[in-house]
Amino acid sequence: MFNLNSPEFLGADRPPERETPERVQAFVSRHRAFFILLAVLVAQLLLLSVQITRNRKARLIQVWAVAVFDPFARTLRASYDATTGAWRSYRDLSGAQQQNRELNLQLVAAHSQIQQLSQQAAEAHRLRDLLEFRNHLPFQAVAAEVIASSPGETSKAIFIDKGMDAGLTSDLAVMTPAGVVGKIIAVFPHTAQVILITDASSGVACTLEKNRVQGILKGGSLNLCQIHYVMNEATVSVGEMVLTSGLDQIYPKGLPVGSVAEIAEGNIYKTIKVQPAAALDRLETVLVVLKPPSSELQALNSPSHP
Question: Helix (H, G, I), strand (E, B), or coil: what is residue 46?
Fold first, then answer.
């Protein structure tokens, strides 16, 4: 009968962990015959499994080994395939993202190139129309590019890239194929300043196309011009074209200035507002009309000239 107060239970003499190897050795010594018999049986079984063959001449030990290790092999294979597939998917996804970024950059570059080509094509078309228009003019003109505009609200002017080097002087008419733009008020070595017809200090001698009533066109409000000194009795209609009369010795006769937008009667003179024919807020290229000799100028401004 076990004594609960013995040193084995109280652990007074030696810790249990130190007695464990001795107990295992004593147990093996007491059952040595059993372990020898077990080892002999296992060895005999292994020998028999090596000698015995089954279907397709496979040894029994091979069948057992396959049965034991096959689940582990399948698990390892599945883990390897999953890892390989995940890595391949990650690599493909990373490559696709890199390719997508490259394609986006190429798309942005292509759009920018298309815009540049479109602008160049539009500029080439505009210059071609300008040169064709200049070739059909009855007077000489110089093409110029608009390089800047005056920042003031009351002063409406632009700067062009031609000046004294191109033979320009002040009081030369500036126009586009659509109509009159203004006149040069200051000339510099390589540039010139042009005052627009919408400026309050500008003035253009003009005539109405239908009844040939003459007046002076000056800048008004809201980017419109106004014809002064037209009597209330004169017949004027909205939409009627306004042309240069040539009496100011600056603008050649017959150039389009704009069209009548509003009409109102005053005390003596009508108030006639004119929409400019040229797009003065989108000027890029213009023509500067060179003054012809006095004989040609008289011929251009003669009543018989259209």
Answer: helix
- pLDDT at residue 39 in the model: 78
Closest CA to 274 of 236, 306, 233, 247: 236
Distance CA 306, CA 299 (A): 11
**Residue 261 · residue 220 · CB < 8 Å:** no
Taking a C-beta distance cutoff of 8 angstroms, is the pair 230, 216 a contact?
A: no
pTM metric for this prediction: 0.59
Phi, psi (5° rounding) for residue 146?
A: -80, 125
DSSP class of 166: G
Rounded Cα distance, 34 and 27, in Å = 11
C-alpha to C-alpha distance for 255 and 248, rounded to whole angstroms: 13
CATH 2.40.10.340, applies to 141-300: yes
The continuous run of DSSP H or E covering 301 comes out as none
Q: What type of residue is 67? A: A
> 158, 172, 176: which is closest to 278 by C-alpha?
176
Half-sphere exposure (CA, 13 Å, Cβ side) for 65? Answer: 8
Tell me: the pLDDT tens digits for 106-119? 888 888 888 887 77
User: 181: closest CA among 260, 289, 296, 293?
Assistant: 289
Measured between alpha carbons, how far is 143 from 229 in angstroms, rounded to an integer?
Answer: 34
What digits encode the pLDDT tens for the residues 23-50? 777 777 777 777 777 777 777 666 655 5
Three-state SS at 69: helix
